[in-house]
Amino acid sequence: RSTLADSHVTLYQFESCPFCRKARSVLDYCRVPYNVVEVNPLSKAELKEVAPDYKKVPVLAVEGPADTVQVRDSKAIVQAVLTAVNAGSSGGPSKRPPVIPATAAMWPSKETEAMGAYLDSLSEVEREWILWTDRVLVQLIVVNIYRNLSESSETFDYLLTHPAFSMFWKYAGHASGTVVMNAVAMIRKRKFGLADERQALYDTLNAFVECLEGDFLGGSKPCRADFNVYGILRSVQSFTTEADMFANSNIGGWYERMQHAVGTSCARNTIARGPQPA
């Protein structure tokens, strides 16, 4: 904890990116103050100074008294922050991730791919869960939040009021992002053979709830897998998908417990999600 407490922490992110929300949720849970730098989704200019060889987010920069440490990849960030402050559940899930017929193409086997030495300390089941969040849950979120132009537009509304971007970048990013990601969602829906992307999401969330070991996957306290799932679902905050998933699945109870455990944001600056109704 002393390392993070004595450091200046900066998170480079996209506001509605599920991987970035994983990082934010664990920083908030561990009560680590941090600055948010919103990366321009088209130019990625903000990354060029800190990570010129890397074009993805999130990137966590920890500037200490002696040097600066950079952590890339949301899974690595979750693990690094929880380890640094000795937080999270000491245990992990015993049940394996759910596979339902609609998502079988996303999760063809139980094999675990290489995810970096930073996860070697976790059990095989928890590593499997973390892989499942990227292979299955993220894919379901993508095909849902971008499933039509109206909902795709919601995810980029934050650009329209972002103070750091010029008018050109605001509207160029909003328009191109809306169209491109809608096309991506349609391609992935066909690829995975999803007949009803909303129902697949509801069924997957209900299957997830059946795997809880009490309040969380980690038992009485959230484990690494809980934070990975929560961050992904938190990324749909205020979107149509969020309202629908609460109304049509059993995820609400776990989500509220995670929200309470994570607490309020420790970000020193926040990004508005877009034009607010009068």
From TrEMBL:
Ranges of residues in domain GST N-terminal: 7-89
InterPro entries, sorted: GLR_AS (IPR011767), Glutathione-S-Trfase_C_sf (IPR036282), Glutathione_S-Trfase (IPR040079), Glutathione_S-Trfase_N (IPR004045), PGES2 (IPR034334), Thioredoxin-like_sf (IPR036249)
GO MF annotation terms: prostaglandin-E synthase activity
A Pfam family that the UniProt record links to this protein: GST_N_3
Domain of life: Eukaryota
UniProt GO cellular component terms: mitochondrion
Record protein name field: GST N-terminal domain-containing protein
Source organism: Oxyrrhis marina
